[in-house]
Amino acid sequence: MSDAGEEAIAASAAKKADKETMEEKKDDDALFETRKHAIQTTWKAVEDSLGVAATELFYKHLFEEYPDVRSMFPDGDMKEQAEKLFKTVTLAVDYLKDVPSLLPILADLGGKHAAWDVKPEHYDAVGECLIWTLKTGLGDAWTDEVADAWVWVYQIIAKTMSDAGEEARAAKADKKDVQFTGDVKEPEEAKAVQKQEVPIVEKQASIRSLIRAGKTDRNDIQLRPVSTALLVIDIQKELARIDEDSPNIDYVKKVFPRMIENTARLINLMRKNRSTLEPKETGSEIIFTYCQALTDDSRDVSLDYKLSGSFLANLPSPSRPAQFIDGVRPIVGQDVMLPKTSCSVFNATNIDYVLRNLDVEQLVICGQLTDQCVESAVRDAADRGYLVTVAEDACTALSESDHLKGLHGMRGFSRMLSTDEVLQELRQN
Fold this sequence. Notes:
Radius of gyration: 27 Å
Shape: globular
Order of helices and strands: HHHHHHEHEHEHEHHEHHEHEHEH
Mean pLDDT: 84
Oligomer: single chain
């Protein structure tokens, strides 16, 4: 056969293979759409008929079938945990329209669950009980097609989270055991103790000096009050009013008061710690940043703010200052107050200069909005060498999806803790 004939045959085969690949892709796309539709419609039915009672039923069945896992959850009523799971499933179902964005969120959750000692076999137990709950709740609406769709999506969720958890465990096992007590002795001082048995004054090392590149994990570095500052972002009356016309009004009415309450708890402990210090001694600092222009006509605000609606183009000013909220109010002359005129406090103020003067190495950040000013501050702080902890339930956004997107965007730059966990660290260290 001539070379031309062989080339023609090869081209024909390649064309046929391309056609088959395209047809397979169309089949895969069609199957995905069928499964997505089945999942979304049946979960909507569960929402309408059962709501949070569905996830409460799930936990009841899980603990009956696998009693050993009960100890992995908080004692007492599981209603709050059931609400969290219900919201997580709802978000995952909604994100089926954007799977590439869903997968990294699941991976983050998997890493976090690994820290709670969740292992691959636990995902099997959860999957079994989830399918049982859906089948029980949907009744006659539970068809073979629906079963196929839910089994398929849970397998993706479980594998993504389980693989991420195993990676997190492996990374932790590979790290050297670095203890961040902050109390270190220089080699020569240690020798002096051994030889002369005379007391020495231990000095507290800089946290940054204890970090070993590629070995230290940010989650191993607990908060140390003497080197920590609390940064409260944009919690002011002008920005804390609830819009009754918001499509997310139920969410907003729940989380805005929670943000204020948890921020007040953080402020109270920081002030208690600070009250034990000597005059001019640094530590347990509280920094308030808030939207306020330098001029009464707001001509100094950022171009972005001038393009972002009436309020941001006409901020509070020296003659009509920002109004604060009871419990989350700075004490003039004691707390640091930094008015800002753009999204990031690190771009709009001299906060970096102030923090270094105060010997701050660690920042606890809270406030609003999670996916805007809070996220900007977290990223900028991390880039400038600060160790950042986000009090995730002391932050909020205008919708739950915006809040979760903000948290996801900050995970690579910070630790994520609840307010209770932050308070615990600050009390014990």
